[in-house]
What we know:
Blueprint: H1 3-11, H2 21-33, E1 34-38, E2 44-50, H3 53-67, E3 72-77, E4 84-90, H4 96-102, E5 106-107, E6 110-111, H5 123-137, E7 138-140, E8 149-153, H6 156-167, E9 174-178, E10 181-186, H7 189-199, H8 202-243
Antiparallel strand pairs: 1-2, 2-4, 3-4, 5-6, 7-8, 8-10, 9-10
Amino acid sequence: xxxxxxxxxxxxxxxxxxxxxxxxxxxxxxxxxxxxxxxxxxxxxxxxxxxxxxxxxxxxxxxxxxxxxxxxxxxxxxxxxxxxxxxxxxxxxxxxxxxxxxxxxxxxxxxxxxxxxxxxxxxxxxxxxxxxxxxxxxxxxxxxxxxxxxxxxxxxxxxxxxxxxxxxxxxxxxxxxxxxxxxxxxxxxxxxxxxxxxxxxxxxxxxxxxxxxxxxxxxxxxxxxxxxxxxxxxxxxxxxxxxx
Length: 244
């Protein structure tokens, strides 16, 4: 199991702090992995595709319990990668438009491009939104190698809002573009650990910190050994010069 999968498994078990946290997480997941399709004048249908079964379960359960919406689930297998993914279809139905507005997907002008401030007004809900973003498109490399963290989104506005949300919690992320996507990334082990702790992946954050300490100690030992070798080489050269 990859470290990213471990983190997502842990995040899927985080209990909401308040009654609005699940709305924030669901809103982020739909923004990241959802596609909104027109199904007639003023009517929409929704598709959500994920390769994580824990995410599929969360989306279906939330749509049922929070909005009483009907969903259809299909498991598909990628011909190219031979890996399964899950398609959640939410057909046009009474209540869907209202749910999309409540989740900050739609506004009076049409599609919401950034994060609806209502969803992240409370600190716990802001953390829940970031948790949803990671569940949707997050990646963290194995902490035993180089530290690397990514969140992938489709619009500059959403990327900017997520970076601002992280900055308010003391986590300074950067944005780069890759093809038609915007990549929010962190390279610092301490920043990645802070993000994991913020969104509720405390065991994963502890694992990151352990690896960070081990790397720090190893690097310190290597520096000392190299310095000692260099000093010994200088001493040997000095002794040879004296003999000559």
